[in-house]
């Protein structure tokens, strides 16, 4: 049976997941297992393997799909446990590297302003825009990432060149920059040789041989395998060659190329002839018969390294660098016996295929279905070809496919020799020789038992400084019967010798180059900096790529990349288009400036109908986006019943229900009339409202006053106790506060009160005790001066003193006055409203004015009063998320560590984590509201809908929890996440408004 588990929004690098899959597949009882991200390409792989279920089909690109085929359902729990352990171990390893982790390239550049290289190892389907962004920020790019369209490679390389930068790659497997090993690479001693190559095992073979010969390498600049194609026209190769020409420590330049386009090849050779430094060049597939001027043309990678070392040591270049094969062959293999090559390195495979084809006159090399050579029974395979690595790790990491091929070829009676490479270095398998040994021993034994002779010939590509042991790898291979040679060329020659063929190289002499040298252009300051300093790298993708950087003196920041918009390509396209519109940034900054410059003052408390005209009839205001009574949840309907009873529109609950159900009451969102309402938000004409004026532009915010906690109207209670309290608030509390505020010229400056209270541990949504006390300190003297009954004074002051959350409603009115001021900017992507009606969560953004974008609201997570549980909870409700809209509440969780446990968020570190996370989706910080526990950083300001969609991080809201049934009231408190779909809808609508194709 197939069992599928989806881990939502749980991105992991594909290589890590491939290794995890291999590990899981060793568990007894599993027929097959696959663990992949839910991209379209991965779903195709699962489908082709018969592992795609309906659950997997529904997964998003940012979801991890775990599919297990087993007869025992209990095995699934084991798989999940092992997967968690594996991923936790990755997290521990990541932490131990010491690399600082960030979640955006901007954050990386804040941490390392002098960064000069972006190292990419992310899926190719998402890479183009990310690489372009790095180039736009002035970073050279090293792209281990492959599967980038040729047209995109051309465009990006042209852009890099115009900016004075280099794009190394795509599919740039290895590199050395200022003696720092990069990506899948060997550790080579420093020296005076600079290399430009396609960046794979060609560079690895040449550099490791140089090291073993006593030479050293200062740079090995990868270009990617297509750079010397006619389409790309060697953009990176030209810039790299010129860079090494102007790099004083480089005395010898080496150029390594797979078969290039003839026109490009000739132009590159012409460029090489214009250099002042000697050059060694190898164009694989060519068999040069002479050298030209200062350009020495090699035939094999080994010869390339040998010539380079002689030049670097000021020794004359020899006519021939072929050394004798010391292994003695007494009886050559029979004519029908053939050679098979199983290579993890594409360039090594190409070299092997070339030499075998030349020796046996087998014609040109092929490049079909992973074969480099496939003629007359002779086969050389590049097992790193895409056909073999779809959904599987590269053979340098994972021995499985090579082991299977060894067993397959060993069964072929015509196989006489199996050629292998064993590539060491950072990123490669920790002990590939040991991993291959059992299969090799088995194959040799099986052949012997069948009366056949089977040879294994290998080369180890590595140095003594690599993380694996070079000598130990050779020893392991020899002990299991492998004939090991010093280079790939020697290994191929030995394989041919076993066939009775003694391969020879012809002498080459130097021929004078006719014609003068061309004037070479200067290099850019950026290239000069790259070649003359240790790299400062933003590592985007595989964390392990920082290992070699740190080990050899480089600097790195880890960008924990994940696909924007959960991998949704439509949304990614829209976000990228919006990013290019400069007017959006201008508008967003204007919105932020209005928010930051706002001056909210509490000036009065008045009957709602005196300032909100639509409340002069049977009209009720409610929280959130528009909703009718019939669609309201329990707390909303309960609050409506209470309001009808309070207003005297009905005498009892039954008649109140009849009035509401008959349509006798009209409803409007609070937000449509400059108001906000907590929880149900139900506001009627005779309820007193706080009046806050934003003196920046006279925008007004209204909000009913806080009733306290427990059985209160806003949570859907409507008992006699609730109505009596509302009557007292109407008749006493409101008028007394109004009279007191009239004695304060201009009203109370709420910015001052907020700034004080945030330093005292309030976040203004779930914790308002400090702000309420500061308000009480300001209002009490004004109340005591009033010429009213002492009992009324006492009742009001005591109510304020007893109602810790009283300031919440003041903060809500202040926040409304701030956002309505900001909403007068009618462009941009800043979120200007967040509100919930118990059914839907609604947002509005600056560029879309009054339009609501809604999605089903979530139910809060939190702590419950005794006797209640999550099953009793109503989905989130209320306009109080206006506080998060202006950057406090859950956004400022770090300001109120004392409330984190109450809302189920843990301790201080959890609060800090939340605020740091919220900061990533905001544009700025509000210096008016400085938070001491956040190193005095200002509260978050300006939620950017684009950032929410790009990161998948939605605002966290602190909230009370209402019982789902009317009449019960508050049953707990907690936090809730805004649904992502609201923000996605808003961004799509705004893009459409701007004329962007959203399909």
UniProtKB/TrEMBL annotation:
Keywords in alphabetical order: Ligase
Gene3D superfamilies: conserved protein of unknown function from Enterococcus faecalis V583 (1.10.10.660), Enterococcus faecalis V583 domain (3.90.1710.10), NAD(P)-binding Rossmann-like Domain (3.40.50.720), Succinyl-CoA synthetase domains (3.40.50.261), v583 domain like (3.90.1700.10)
Name used for this protein in its record: Succinyl-CoA ligase [ADP-forming] subunit alpha
Span of domain CoA-binding: 190-285
Origin superkingdom: Bacteria
Enzyme Commission number(s) from the entry: 6.2.1.5
Pfam families: AllG, CoA_binding, Ligase_CoA
Domain ATP-citrate synthase/succinyl-CoA ligase C-terminal per the UniProt entry, residue ranges: 342-496
SUPFAM superfamilies to which the protein is assigned, alphabetical: NAD(P)-binding Rossmann-fold domains, Succinyl-CoA synthetase domains
GO molecular function annotation: succinate-CoA ligase (ADP-forming) activity
């Amino acid at each position: 049976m197939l069992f599928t588990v989806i881990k939502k929004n749980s991105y992991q690098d594909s290589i890590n997941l491939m290794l995890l899959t291999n590990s899981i597949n060793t568990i007894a009882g599993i027929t097959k297992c696959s663990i992949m991200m839910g991209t379209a390409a991965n779903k195709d792989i699962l489908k082709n393997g018969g592992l795609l279920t309906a659950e997997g089909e529904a997964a998003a690109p940012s979801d991890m799909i775990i599919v297990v085929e087993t007869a025992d359902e209990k095995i699934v729990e084991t798989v999940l446990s092992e997967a968690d352990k594996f991923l936790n171990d990755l997290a521990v390893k990541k932490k131990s590297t010491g690399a600082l982790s960030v979640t955006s390239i901007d954050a990386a550049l804040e941490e390392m302003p002098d960064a000069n290289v972006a190292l990419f190892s992310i899926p190719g389907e998402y890479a183009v825009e990310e690489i372009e962004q790095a180039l736009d920020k002035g970073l050279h790019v090293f792209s281990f990432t492959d599967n980038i369209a040729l047209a995109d490679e051309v465009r990006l390389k042209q852009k890099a060149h115009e900016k004075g930068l280099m794009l190394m790659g795509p599919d740039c497997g290895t590199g050395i920059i200022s003696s720092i090993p990069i990506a899948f690479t060997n550790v080579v001693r420093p020296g005076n040789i600079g290399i430009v190559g396609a960046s794979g095992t060609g560079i690895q073979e040449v550099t490791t041989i140089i090291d073993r010969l006593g030479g050293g390498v200062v740079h090995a600049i990868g270009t990617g395998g297509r750079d010397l194609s006619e389409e790309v026209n060697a953009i990176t190769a030209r810039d790299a060659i010129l860079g090494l020409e102007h790099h004083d420590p480089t005395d010898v330049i080496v150029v390594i190329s797979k078969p290039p386009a003839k026109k490009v090849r000739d132009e590159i050779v012409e460029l090489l002839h214009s250099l002042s430094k000697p050059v060694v060049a190898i164009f694989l597939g060519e068999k040069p018969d002479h050298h030209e001027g200062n350009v020495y043309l090699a035939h094999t990678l080994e010869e390339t390294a040998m010539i380079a070392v002689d030049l670097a040591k000021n020794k004359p270049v020899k006519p021939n660098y072929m050394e004798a094969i010391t292994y003695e062959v007494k009886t050559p293999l029979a004519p029908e016996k053939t050679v098979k090559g199983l290579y993890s390195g594409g360039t090594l495979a190409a070299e092997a295929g070339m030499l075998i084809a030349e020796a046996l006159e087998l014609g040109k090399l092929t490049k079909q279905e992973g074969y480099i050579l496939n003629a007359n029974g002779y086969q050389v395979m590049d097992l790193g070809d895409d056909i073999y690595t779809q959904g599987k790790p590269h053979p340098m990491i994972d021995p499985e496919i090579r082991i299977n091929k060894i067993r397959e070829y060993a069964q072929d009676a015509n196989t006489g020799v199996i050629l292998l490479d064993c590539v060491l270095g950072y990123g490669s398998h920790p002990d590939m020789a040991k991993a291959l040994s059992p299969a090799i021993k088995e194959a040799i034994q099986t052949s012997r038992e069948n009366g056949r002779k089977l040879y294994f010939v290998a080369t180890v590509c590595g140095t003594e400084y690599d993380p694996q042991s070079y000598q130990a790898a050779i020893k392991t291979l020899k002990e299991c019967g492998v004939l090991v040679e010093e280079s790939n060329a020697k290994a191929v020659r030995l394989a041919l010798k076993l066939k009775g063929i003694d391969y020879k190289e012809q002498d080459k002499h130097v021929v004078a180059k006719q014609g003068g040298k061309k004037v070479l252009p200067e290099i850019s300051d950026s290239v000069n900096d790259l070649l003359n300093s240790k790299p400062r790298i933003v590592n985007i993708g595989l964390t392990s790529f920082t290992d070699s950087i740190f080990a050899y003196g480089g600097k790195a920041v880890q960008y924990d990349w994940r696909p924007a918009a959960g991998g949704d390509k439509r949304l990614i396209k829209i976000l990228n288009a919006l990013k290019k519109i400069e007017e959006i940034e201008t508008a967003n900054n204007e919105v932020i400036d209005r928010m930051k410059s706002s001056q909210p003052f509490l000036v009065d408390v008045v009957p709602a109908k005196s300032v909100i005209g639509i409340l002069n009839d049977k009209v009720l205001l409610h929280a959130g986006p528009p909703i009718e009574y019939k669609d309201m949840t329990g707390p909303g309907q309960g609050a409506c019943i209470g309001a009808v009873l309070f207003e005297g529109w009905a005498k009892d609950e039954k008649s109140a229900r009849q009035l509401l159900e008959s349509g006798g009451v009209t409803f409007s969102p609070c937000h449509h009339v400059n108001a906000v309402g907590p929880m149900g938000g139900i506001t009627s004409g005779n309820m007193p409202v706080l009046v806050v004026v934003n003196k920046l532009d006279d925008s007004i915010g209204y909000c009913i006053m806080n009733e306290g906690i427990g059985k209160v109207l806003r949570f859907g209670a409507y008992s006699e106790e609730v109505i009596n309290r509302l009557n007292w608030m109407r008749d006493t509390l409101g008028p007394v506060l109004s009279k007191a505020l009239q004695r304060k010229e201009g009203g109370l400056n709420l910015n001052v009160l907020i700034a004080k209270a945030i330093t005292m541990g309030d976040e203004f949504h779930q914790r308002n005790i400090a702000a309420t006390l500061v308000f009480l300190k300001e209002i009490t003297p004004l109340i005591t001066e009033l010429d009213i009954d002492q009992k009324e004074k006492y009742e009001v002051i005591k109510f304020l003193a007893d109602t810790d959350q009283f300031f919440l409603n003041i903060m809500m009115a202040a926040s409304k006055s701030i956002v309505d001021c900001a909403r007068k900017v009618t462009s941009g992507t800043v979120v200007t409203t967040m509100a919930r009606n118990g059914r839907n969560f609604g947002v509005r953004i600056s560029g879309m004015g009054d339009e609501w974008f809604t999605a089903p609201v979530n139910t809060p997570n939190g702590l419950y009063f005794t006797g209640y549980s999550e099953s009793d909870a109503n989905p989130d409700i209320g306009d109080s998320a206006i506080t998060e809209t202006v950057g406090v509440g859950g956004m400022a969780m770090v300001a109120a560590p004392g409330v984190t446990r109450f809302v189920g968020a843990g301790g201080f570190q959890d609060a800090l984590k939340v605020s740091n996370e919220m900061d990533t989706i905001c544009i700025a910080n509000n210096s008016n509201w400085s938070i001491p526990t956040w190193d005095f950083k200002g509260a978050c300001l300006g939620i950017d809908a684009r950032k929410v969609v790009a990161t998948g991080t939605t605002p966290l809201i602190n909230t009370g929890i209402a019982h789902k049934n009317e009449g019960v009231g508050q049953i707990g408190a907690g936090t809730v996440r805004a649904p992502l779909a609201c923000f996605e809808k808003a961004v799509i609508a705004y893009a459409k408004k701007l004329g962007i194709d959203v399909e």
